[in-house]
Design a protein that fits this description.
alpha+beta; two-stranded antiparallel ribbon
């Protein structure tokens, strides 16, 4: 769900025993999106900060040109983050009050992912 009303509607259909919240600062999100390049035909994603292509602007496998998504720009990302702040962020309190929220806070996916994976494996597999 993206809003509390959607979460409330979902709760009439399903009982959630855990909600994972990735607490990432907006500056980190903006930097990651700004540096994101994709190989459209394959869906491969590169990031100039932590996963750059071997040859600048080229896909590692095919050598074809990389592109940026049309909506990967500061203006669009800022609007999406503002929408998140007003509509989605209240879900944190909603699920925290239900005592099902599990928060993972970090700035790098390679740091946060092992913790999330361990939590899922320990509690659900």
């Amino acid at each position: 769900p993206r809003t509390v009303s959607q979460a409330e509607a979902l709760s009439t259909q399903e009982t959630l025993n855990s909600v994972i919240y990735l607490d990432v600062h907006f500056d980190t999100i903006i930097a990651r999106i700004k540096n994101r390049w994709i190989h459209e035909p394959s869906g491969r994603v590169y990031n100039l900060s932590y996963n750059p292509p071997k040859v600048s602007g080229k896909d590692d496998i095919t050598g074809e040109a990389l592109t940026q998504r049309e909506d990967d720009n500061l203006e669009t990302v800022s609007k999406r983050l503002e929408s998140y702040r007003t509509q989605t962020a209240p879900l944190i309190n909603y699920y925290n009050n239900l005592q099902v929220l599990r928060t993972f806070a970090e700035t790098q996916s390679d740091v946060i992912w092992p913790d999330v994976k361990m939590y899922i494996e320990k509690n659900f597999l």
